[in-house]
Amino acid sequence: MESEHLIGYTIRALSNLFRRQLMSHQPPDGKPCSETAGMIMGYLCEHVGDQLCQHDIEQVFCIRRSTASRFLIALEKEEMIERVSAPNDARRKIIVPTEKALAIHAQFIAQRDALEAQIIRGIPREEVDAFLATAKKIQANLAELPQQKTC
Question: Which residues does UniProt call coiled coil (predicted)?
Answer without folding.
Answer: none
